[in-house]
Amino acid sequence: MQKLLSAIASRLVIIVPYAWLLIFFLIPFLIVFKISLSTSAISMPPYTPAFEGIGTWLESARKFTVDNYVWITEDALYAKAYLSSVIIAAVSTVLTLLLGFPLAYGMARAPQSIRPTLLMLVILPFWTSFLIRVYAWIGILKPEGLLNQFLLWTGVISEPLQILNTHTAIFIGIVYSYLPFMVLPIYSTLEKMDYSLIEAAQDLGCPPITAFWKITLPLAIPGILAGCLLVFIPAVGEFVIPDLLGGSRTLMIGKTLWSEFFNNRDWPLASAVAIILLLLLVVPIVLFQNAQARAQEAGK
Amino acid sequence: MNTTWSRFNIASVVLGFAFLYLPIVLLVIYSFNESRLVTVWAGFSTKWYGEMLRNEGLMNAAWVTARVGVLSASIATVLGTLAALALDRYTRFRGRLLFSGMVYAPLVMPEVITGLSLLLLFVAVGMDRGFLTVTLAHVTFSMCFVAVVVQSRLVSFDRSLEEAAMDLGATPVTTFFEVTLPNILPAVVSGWMLAFTLSLDDLVIASFTSGPGATTLPMKIYSQVRLGVTPEINAVCTVLIGLVSTGVIAASIVGKRKEVQRRREEQAAFAEGV
């Protein structure tokens, strides 16, 4: 009896989370795919179901339509939105890396005693609301905002700069919001690094800069890769940052999906947009999963 | 270890932290601004906090958010811990690859996709959107974060402790509650907190999956922000920041004290044994 209970318990450990993720993560994607193949209708829910139940599957499969996908490929707006999302995300990822790496490196080289405090200081903003952190930048970047006031006061500029509602504001927003995601994985690889390697290189006459390029950087690659993926993938589909900081003219696919859904109420088209976005991100997501799995295995 | 903390290192750390903290500090300062104009300083005042407390819509949203947060974080912690155990303990079972994929993918999945897909699920099964659907949605994405946090703790956990307990006749279930759980508790607790703040923070998924009567605080803040920056919102944000930072700092201090105490006990036990 005891044994049976234990056997059941150990099965449940797998089955319960597995079932939950199947129902609330995998099946919803299949539904998105299904609805992306149906035509939109003015009703609630605003689409004509492509099929109802298994029994009518074959019959209704004939009603499947790729119209939404055709529409997306024909309308240049969508292609532009996808492209500009990828470009904005890529540029922001590089900027985050440029700011995050020195920070992570500085933290890893800091005296052992203050490292936990520094780590805590990086994590703390991550706990505070994303929306609030993005919102804080509006007050700073506005034409009559704090940054412009400061720059005018110091005499660096004579006219307020237009930063809010430009790509620059989006870059600032993404770098700011995602910086901890970049710093943490890089820090954890740099912290584990054996600095006697650098000393050995320097003893052998290697200049510090060369030692950095030849030893530190290659050893930090797994952390850099993980950090870049953690920033890039969500940034491509980002909605809040382009919406609040980028203004109405910014074209990013997360915003397009949102407005197809909430403003135009075209659920099938929004679904098709989501499916293509997902296809676009499959490669980086698989890379990320492999990196995660390997990192967890390496911990053993 | 002999490390040199160069001037360059110090400068990059100081600059990095200035960038991270300046906007938050400014936001907090301007929540005490007398003027309605957010960027003009007109003297110290706490009137916006009073205004915030009198704003019924805001307070209702805060209450909804708190309930969704506690409930979803609690369920997510149980499910996430189970998922972490499954990934750590069972290296071979049918569909493990799919399972680990489903645990890691939500960490990076764009929120618009997760939100849309969950909404379509709820519509497909005919569930009314509201408190329950937001909670289910939050459980789903935050359990994966809990799983990762707990799993990284399980990796460093010494399994010979469990084997010892089982050798002494404890059942696996008893072993889990008496040996494993106390050991991984710090990770489980921080997993809960992470899940709670993720829920507290979420705008996009909540907007898709919520219905009338279940407007969460981020949704409320977002709709007000779209109309313009107001000191009232600054006040709400300051309260939230204060709550969360106090919680996180307190938890880390308690955690550190426990760790020190545990180590001391271990050393004492070891010394006695010798």
From TrEMBL, chain A:
Any one Gene Ontology cellular component term annotated for this protein: plasma membrane
Entry-linked Gene3D superfamilies: MetI-like (1.10.3720.10)
PROSITE patterns associated with the record: ABC_TM1 (PS50928)
Subcellular location, record wording: Cell membrane
GO annotation, biological process: transmembrane transport
Entry membrane topology: Multi-pass membrane protein
Transmembrane segments: 12-37, 81-105, 117-138, 169-190, 211-236, 267-288
Keyword annotations from UniProtKB, A to Z: Cell membrane, Membrane, Transmembrane, Transmembrane helix, Transport
Domain ABC transmembrane type-1 stretches: 82-288
Record keyword ATP-binding present: no
Family as reported in the entry's similarity comment: Belongs to the binding-protein-dependent transport system permease family. CysTW subfamily.
Stated name of the protein: Putrescine/spermidine ABC transporter permease
UniProtKB/TrEMBL annotation, chain B:
Record GO biological process: transmembrane transport
InterPro entries named in the record: Bact_Polyamine_Transport, MetI-like, MetI-like_sf
Topology versus the membrane: Multi-pass membrane protein
Domain of life of the source: Bacteria
Domain ABC transmembrane type-1: 62-254
UniProt KW Metal-binding keyword: no
PANTHER family: PUTRESCINE TRANSPORT SYSTEM PERMEASE PROTEIN POTI (PTHR43848:SF2)
Protein's recorded name: Putrescine ABC transporter permease PotI
